[in-house]
Amino acid sequence: MSEVENEADDAAESADAAESADAAESADAAESADAAESADAAESADAAESDEVADAGRDEIWIEKYRPETLDEVAGHDDITARLKRYVERDDLPNLLFSGPAGVGKTTSAVAIAKQLYGDDWEQNFLELNASDQRGIDVVRDRIKNFARSSFGGYNHRIIFLDEADSLTSDAQSALRRTMEQFSSNTRFILSCNYSSKIIDPIQSRCATFRFGPISEEGVAEQIREVAAEEDIETTEDGVDALVYAADGDMRKAINALQAAAVMGEVVDEDAVFTITSTARPEEIEKMVTHAIEGDFTKARKVLDDLLTNKGMAGGDIIDQLHRSVWEFDLDDEATVRLMDRVGEVDYRITEGANERVQLESLLASLSLEDR
Ligand SMILES: Nc1ncnc2c1ncn2[C@@H]1O[C@H](COP(=O)(O)OP(=O)(O)OP(=O)(O)O)[C@@H](O)[C@H]1O
Fold first, then answer.
1. Which portions of the chain have biased composition (kind: Low complexity) (predicted)?
2. Is the reported ipTM for this assembly greater than 0.95?
3. 107, 193, 223: which to mutate for ligand 1, most atoms within 8 A of CB?
């Protein structure tokens, strides 16, 4: 939508902000039923991981224990944290949009901003909500309104952090945008999402966008070594490498896997890590593909079967690992391109709900049949 259209839209809305917000809410009523799926997805993923670790006999969850307190402590995003720090220093926070994969520091940075702005009062001035709340978007919006309307402790603004903003439909996002405007005098929004392209333009244009990439291998390794040293956990070099590989840039996954592996045995080595994370060793993926490329479908299928059945891997995870390794196989350019093409196709089909074993076997079969 163009700015001119935005302005016109804004003028119409300002006639009666409360009413338009209510109208938007009723438009969303049907959708709230759809939103009633699982509880807060990020929280429940964390909770599942947390339960696993707690069951293993540890009292404290390391991802929380080692969550950075300040923007300076957030690893691997120096450019972003430098810019965020400037907003905090000037006490001039715009609405923000954080996009990027899971476990890379989006929530952590939002909380760090609040801690730096409000000190000990941060919890009263920071509301964390999940847009995919199972009770529906209208509940989310009610909570936003109640928070934004309640009294302040002498601060100009309070912060509402809305996780998984890209799970909202465009209609719900339009309503959210009106709510953002309604409370723009005293509230700042930090929206978090995996894909900023799923956020409607009128919201994007009202936010400063920050793209959080996956954490670098060195960044993850450094954090793992620090946590292991603090916890007095012995790790081998190949254990750290395996954690870095399994995490694939997701710091939450790396720290959770370290904690889970630590309770399994004395030393965290690659065996412990690959077992606990249900990750295939890169050599296993390579063996499977090499058998297929050499035309031995039966052997390739046996490796696949071991990964799916004995290692308990999900088809989507095998495809992800295959995708990461494609360039490391000893293939000529043409074969690499064909393999990548098939990986893309199978990935799409699995995401759309096709039978993962059938899809992976068909990929191996087509590699086996290729002319060499
Ligand atoms: N950049 C980072 N530096 C240090 N620790 C990090 C970083 N990113 C993530 N972590 C660790 O992982 C945990 C989870 O991170 P966080 O909640 O910020 O992820 P997120 O990007 O918001 O993910 P999601 O999109 O799933 O909500 C933190 O508590 C912290 O322990």
1. 14-45
2. yes
3. 107
Show the ligand 1 pocket: residues with CB < 6 angstroms.
Answer: 42, 63-64, 66-68, 74-77, 102-108, 163, 192, 215, 223, 251-252, 255
Report the CATH number that the domain containing residue 299 is assigned in CATH: 1.20.272.10
The minimum-distance atom of ligand 1 relative to the CA of 111 is 18
Shared domain check, 93 and 170: yes
Q: Is 106 annotated as a binding residue?
A: yes
Contact criterion met (CB below 8 Å) for 95 and 124: no
* Residue of 294, 298, 350, 353 whose CA lies nearest to 323: 350
Q: Whose CA is nearest to atom 11 of ligand 1?
A: 252
- Name the residue among 47, 198, 43, 24 with its Cα closest to residue 134: 43
The model's pLDDT over 314-370, given as tens digits with 9 standing for 90+, comes to 999 999 999 988 888 877 888 889 889 999 999 999 999 999 999 999 999 998 987
pTM summary value: 0.78
Q: How many domains does the chain have?
A: 3
From residue 320, alpha-carbon distances to 11, 257, 316, 325, 350 in Å are 47, 18, 6, 9, 11
Indicate whether 299 belongs to any domain.
Answer: yes
